[in-house]
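lol forgot to send this yesterday, sorry. struct tokens for the thing we talked abt
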């Protein structure tokens, strides 16, 4: 097998993976991904015991036991660029021999579950309710850098979406990635499901206008009106496309569930979204265990 070069797989002096500062034995097969570092402790407070606490930059990791099951919770920060780091390094921890720098003969599949917050794009979705992502649309362009992107997506829905929105050539070509059916059935079986857009920013890419104008002021209305085989786009967030896309390419199961804290169509915002997020965490943990 080809040895992976020192500049491609970067390790710290203690042998841990470069950004996450983790060793292979320090993560579980089930990893909960959250954006906010503070949410890591909120999740791990439910654990019976915590055996690993590691942090580097925005990447805070707790690994522990809940009901006899080992679980890792990891903060990613915001955006698909961070997800590129997190998913690739998690995969390297389980599927690359870090000492020999070669891919292992036996593949290990991780279960990656993002618990986040999101803004609804349909009038009938109330704030403080969870939405599970069946399909993600990546506005970020990340997956366009990887081989296999075309085979992963759905060319028909992609063409319909670009035609419906009159998609500008100045923007990254959107890609489509599906969540794990296994995790959808196990964890989100009774939740509202939909198509989620991952935007590469919080303001202009999600249609928010402060002092800068956007190139298409009607884009959110076009997105809300889009329908494909009876399916509609339900919400905006900033990470799910890379999580689902990279996981599919690398052979992992991935699911994103976001608590709706704002309805962009009705201009509503949750009065206390943290309560809903905590309830969602409890639900997900109970179904994992």
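and heres what i got for the seq, position by position
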């Amino acid at each position: 097998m080809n040895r992976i070069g020192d500049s491609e797989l970067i390790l710290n002096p203690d042998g841990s993976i470069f950004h996450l500062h983790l060793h292979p034995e320090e993560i579980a097969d089930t990893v909960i991904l959250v954006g906010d570092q503070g949410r890591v402790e909120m999740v791990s407070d439910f654990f019976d015991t915590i055996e690993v606490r590691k942090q580097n930059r925005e990447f805070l990791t707790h690994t522990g036991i809940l009901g006899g099951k080992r679980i890792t919770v990891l903060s990613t920060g915001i955006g698909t660029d961070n997800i590129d780091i997190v998913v690739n390094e998690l995969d390297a921890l389980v599927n690359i021999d870090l000492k020999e720098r070669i891919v292992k003969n036996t593949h290990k599949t991780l279960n990656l579950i993002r618990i986040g917050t999101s803004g609804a794009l349909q009038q009938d979705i109330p704030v403080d309710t969870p939405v599970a992502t069946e399909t993600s649309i990546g506005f970020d362009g990340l997956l366009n850098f990887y081989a296999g992107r075309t085979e992963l997506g759905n060319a028909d829905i992609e063409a319909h979406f670009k035609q419906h929105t009159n998609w500008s050539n100045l923007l990254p070509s959107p890609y489509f990635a599906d969540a794990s059916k296994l995790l959808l059935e196990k964890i989100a079986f009774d939740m509202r499901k939909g198509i989620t857009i991952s935007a590469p920013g919080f303001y202009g890419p999600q249609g928010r206008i402060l002092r800068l104008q956007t190139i298409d002021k009607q884009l959110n209305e076009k997105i809300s009106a889009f329908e494909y085989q009876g399916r509609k786009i339900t919400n905006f967030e900033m990470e799910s496309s890379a999580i689902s896309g990279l996981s599919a390419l690398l052979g992992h199961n991935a699911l994103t569930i976001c608590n709706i804290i704002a309805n962009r169509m009705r201009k509503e915002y949750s009065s206390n979204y943290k309560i809903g997020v905590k309830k969602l965490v409890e639900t997900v943990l109970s179904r994992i265990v």
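The helical segments are 37-44, 80-95, 149-152, 155-165, 181-187, 219-225, 240-250, 273-288. anyway ping me if u want another try
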